[in-house]
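Thread amino acids onto this structure.
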């Protein structure tokens, strides 16, 4: 018996990558999954923090997919290298700050390097022609293959029959006749194939696999870049953009306000890095201040903090302010009225 060929599958945790890997496994290919951790991934993080999402399974969908398929999953941290993709995408952004085409090129390039190191034969992805407007078009498929350097070592089992033959097909490592020709935005063919394979429970990512496709998230990231005067970020920045209510009352500072206990607990982990506020006379959220604040800014911040707690209708609320240099101040304030908060303060 000949040794099976080995493929690295890019596993996002969604249905398409699950199916692509399954199609290969059914052809006797040895498949191992790669999941790239960019820091923007939707999976797990916010579900684990927020109380209201408690009912949802707190699973990492990429791991779950690997488990369903019985394959090994390699989770690879690409946080640092990925910054350049987000900050300077050669092909530009999609509808929000999602650099999908550059992102795909980058991930396939990393996968190519990985298969070279590990002695694997080719790469598979769950891409489908026409599924996404920017990164999954017939004319962008060759761009990804070419710019990543993967060329014809990149096989897309779900739409391969609509694309030129790749090396694994030409060499007979896989049977092209048993690959698919899915095309277009409809998810029905994938759902039918999932049913055929007996998969009933799978993640249904709305819009994309990361927060960069989210309009509000992108707005917060753009605000962060603008406030800093440069397009840079650290992991903590992009994590905090996923959590809490973000308000920018003045150009020099932003407030991150916990919306519920889970978020307050998460924000507590950042108390040493940020000036933070908490009402002491009433229950209320933990509030982090991002930026440089003067004394009058703290008055406004205290009024806003009071507004988002149980003292919102009280005559006055005591708020404790812990500055980043370790000083504790107290303010007795009247909570700001809802109508005094302009809509454009909310990010
Ligand atoms: S949605 Fe996010 S992770 Fe997915 S291709 Fe686009 S930028 Fe990359």
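Threaded sequence (347 positions):
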């Amino acid at each position: 018996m000949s040794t099976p060929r080995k493929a690295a599958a890019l596993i996002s945790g969604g249905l398409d990558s699950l199916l692509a890997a399954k199609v290969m496994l059914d052809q006797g290919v040895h498949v191992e999954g790669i999941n790239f951790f960019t820091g923007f991934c939707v999976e797990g993080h916010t579900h684990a923090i927020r109380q209201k999402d408690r009912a949802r399974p707190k699973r990492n969908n990429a791991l779950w997919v690997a488990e369903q398929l019985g394959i090994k999953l390699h989770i690879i941290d690409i946080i640092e290298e990925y910054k350049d993709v987000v900050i300077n995408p050669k092909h530009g952004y999609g509808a929000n700050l999602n650099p999908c085409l550059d992102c795909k090129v980058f991930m396939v390039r990393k996968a190519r390097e990985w298969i070279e190191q590990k002695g694997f034969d080719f790469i598979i992805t769950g891409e489908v022609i026409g599924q996404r407007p920017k990164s999954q078009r017939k004319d962008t498929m060759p761009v990804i293959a070419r710019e990543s350097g993967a060329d014809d070592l990149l096989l897309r089992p779900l739409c391969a029959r609509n694309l030129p033959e790749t090396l694994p097909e030409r060499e007979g490592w896989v049977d092209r006749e048993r690959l698919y020709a899915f095309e277009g935005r409809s998810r029905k063919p994938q759902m039918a194939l999932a049913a055929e394979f007996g998969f009933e429970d799978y993640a249904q990512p709305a819009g994309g696999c990361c927060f960069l496709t989210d309009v509000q998230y992108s707005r917060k990231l753009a605000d962060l870049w603008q406030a800093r005067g440069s397009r840079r970020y650290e992991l903590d920045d992009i994590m905090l953009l996923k959590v809490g209510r973000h308000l920018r009352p003045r150009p020099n500072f932003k407030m991150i306000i916990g919306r519920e206990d889970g978020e307050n607990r998460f924000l507590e982990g950042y108390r040493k890095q940020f000036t933070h506020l908490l009402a002491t006379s009433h229950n209320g959220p933990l509030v982090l201040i991002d930026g440089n604040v003067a004394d009058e800014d703290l008055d406004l911040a205290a009024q806003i903090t009071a507004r988002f707690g149980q003292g919102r209708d009280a005559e006055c609320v005591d708020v404790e302010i812990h500055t980043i240099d370790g000083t504790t101040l107290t303010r007795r304030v009247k909570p700001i009225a809802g109508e005094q908060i302009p809509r454009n303060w909310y990010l």
